[in-house]
Every structure is written in C-alpha cells, then in structure tokens.
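Your task:
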Amino acid sequence: MLERLIAYYCAPALAGIKPANIASCSKKQFANLNFGLEKLNGELNRKDIFIEILCECEKRALLIVYRRNILERHLSRRCNKDFLKQCGYPEEGTAAEYLTVLSAKLRGSGFPHEIGVFLGYPLCDIYGFINHRDKGCLLVGEWKVYHNADEAENISHFFLCHSLGFSVFCQKNSAFVKIHFSTSAL
C-alpha cells in the first residue's frame, strides 16, 4: 500500500521534523502510482503536505514528501541558498523552482548530491561527501558525517525515533489519509 511506504520512509517530513524525505517505489508494485499520488495529494495538500515524483524510469519512481512551508523556510536560509547557487540553482528561487531544478538534475547524468540540502542534512556533511567521499567520514547513518559526529548522531537518532513512532502510528491507522497530519495532532 502506497500510504504505508510513505509513512515508513517519510515519517520525519510528514511529522514536520525534517524539510523533506525521499522514497523509491516500484512501479510494478504500485501500478496506479499517479492515481494514488493524486488521491493522497488531494487529501494532504490542505495540510501543506505534498508528494511529488522527482524522477522515474521504467521500473521505479523516486518520490519526495515535504511540508511546503517547512521546505520553503529551510531552503530560504542564506547558507542553503548560497550553496544551491554554487550547484546551479537560481539565486532567489522558491522551493518549487528548486525542486524543478533538482528533478531535472536527477534525470541527467550524475547524481546531484546537493539533494542533502532538501533532506535537511548539515551543509558541512554535504560538502564533505561531495569533496571527500569516504575520506574523513566520521560516522555513517542516514547520511555520511564529516563534522561533529556527536551532534549528527543525536539528530539521526531523533529522526529515527520519530520516524519509527510516527510510521507505526500511521500504519496502525487504517484510514491513513484521514489523519490529515494536522500539526496540532502531532
């Protein structure tokens, strides 16, 4: 069920504790993916939750789940704007414009590692991964950590605990979309 996949992999974004999460889904398993996304967005967009296909191939689709206001606020931080500008994004773009550029880059050659900005990873770790790959990596978890391993471990643990708790809550509720993810309920 599409709702379970999204709840499991994207719980931190649904709960509003991360700017966004991504999930890859099999088109074979979700033959009516576009219809399912349209239905979910119809329910969730009212609560500022959006699910989009970032890129797709014959067999899979990469989804991004985000709360628009949180992603917009995160991407509008000067440090994130400056970093994204270095990666070819507009200097003063909206979240929608940045997502369009990210989507185009995902369809191109190479992988846009700046996707970490959208996912809320620390900029120093994104720089570290782009410039050093495995050299100097202090910790591997949800992302590779190159600076301040203790803080990253705490953040990663926070994401994991909330993700597990929220996804279990969503999966046990048979009416996933009726939760509406209101911020007051979280």
